[in-house]
Design a protein that fits this description.
This protein is an all-alpha fold and 86 residues long. It is built from four helices and no strands.
């Protein structure tokens, strides 16, 4: 089984999200965490770094333009608009 290159995958996701100018500090943090995850061999350290990387990427996904999905109220409003022919 090939080892995953977390740094490259994280860089690719950041580019895909389009958040480099929106949250440059979070982007740098995510890349640093991914690099540490690639370099660590200790399972406990890897778990802690992975948890922080996941949280940082979640924050980046939340600020990404056009990436937010509608909530229940948005769905209801869309259905109401469809029923009314809007």
């Amino acid at each position: 089984m090939a080892k995953i290159d977390n740094e490259t995958a994280t860089r690719d996701e950041i580019i895909t999200l389009g958040v480099t100018t929106i949250a440059p500090g979070l982007c740098a943090l995510a890349i640093t965490l991914a690099k540490h995850l690639d370099e660590t061999d200790a399972p406990t350290s890897a778990a802690a770094v992975a948890r922080e990387l996941r949280a940082t990427l979640d924050k980046l996904r939340a600020v990404a333009p056009g990436q937010a999905e509608g909530d229940v109220l948005d769905d209801l409003a869309a259905r109401r608009a469809t029923r009314r022919g809007a």
